[in-house]
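It is worth pausing here to work through a concrete case rather than discussing structure prediction in the abstract. The textbook approach is simple: state the sequence, then state the predicted structure, then interpret. We follow exactly that order.
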Amino acid sequence: MVALGSLCLVSSSNWLSVYLAIELSTLSLFILVAQRGGSGQSAEAGLKYFVLGALSSGLFLFGCALLCGFTGGVHIPYINLTLNPGFYFSEIRVPSGSLLIVVALLFKLSVAPFHMWAPDVYDGAPTTATALLAIVPKVGYFSIFVSIGSAVNILLVGTLFSLLVGALGALNQTKVKRLLAYSGVGHMGFVLWGIEVGSFESIQASLTYMGLYVIMSICVFAIILALGTVRNLIVEFSGLSRRLPVLALTLALTFLSIAGVPPLVGFLGKWLVLLSGVVDQYYLVFFLAVLCSVVAGVYYVRIVKIIYFQASFSLLISSKMLRKENWINLRKALLIGACLYVIGLTVFSPNLWLQLAHWAVGGLF
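Step two, the predicted structure:
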């Protein structure tokens, strides 16, 4: 149902179908987040996600009511053409409607300063639900942002806050899912920056960045599920290079790629977004993005250091001895291998990925 809601969201052309597609995926994710019976942490995560999701849905509906009531239609292209043929949502009489819609979508994407629910929900939900929550809805929301354009520079504000919060928020985290929550906030800052610039090249760069981020996130969550960590602590990766050297190398390369270390694919995505920002003279945002990327690279490199250079604690060793050996099944191995293949292929031949992004962005305009 989550995938179906995202597919419907990508193909939606009016605000009613957009709302129904968003709620279809949101309610399905709420059930998945709170499905771990007997766990107070999972119930708390589900309640937080439900309450804040209902708040954002109310803001979204109110914004749609303002826009549709003013223009007399529900189709997004018709509303954009009615307000102004040359620029989206630039009329003074309707900034509140577009602003409410964009804020509601930023809540759904956990973009700073509307990210407060993400670390707790990511940590409390089962790992499979966290993976779905971190990966699937983002692609659908990207298409909606491109369709409605920027509203009173709110995307630029979200970009700046997300870059700062994503870089600083994860520095003191000890749990991997909370770290990935803050990491996602920072990466959404890069994606929103490309949408805010608004040119064809910048949106293509954002879509390329989004696609690469999704592939790398799938690989990370698949490895976490394959390892079967007990408390999802970062220190549970210690000694992994001696126990499972191939899996340790895959995890290290994926985290370094997410950090944007050249010549890995994460560097390609960030370079394209930064280049599009410089072309459109966003120099201050460029320097902030580079600085935040350097700071964020600290906690990714720290994970690689734990994987290769930190011995297991005695408490972790005893817990691993009491547990039965967790073998990686065929489906997880194939998923990890496919993601690693895409990451490696893009390093040596990025033209195919860039061509796909070009065709996809052409279909959005």
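Step three, interpretation. The chain has two domains: 1-149, 151-364. The chain has 17 helices and no strands.
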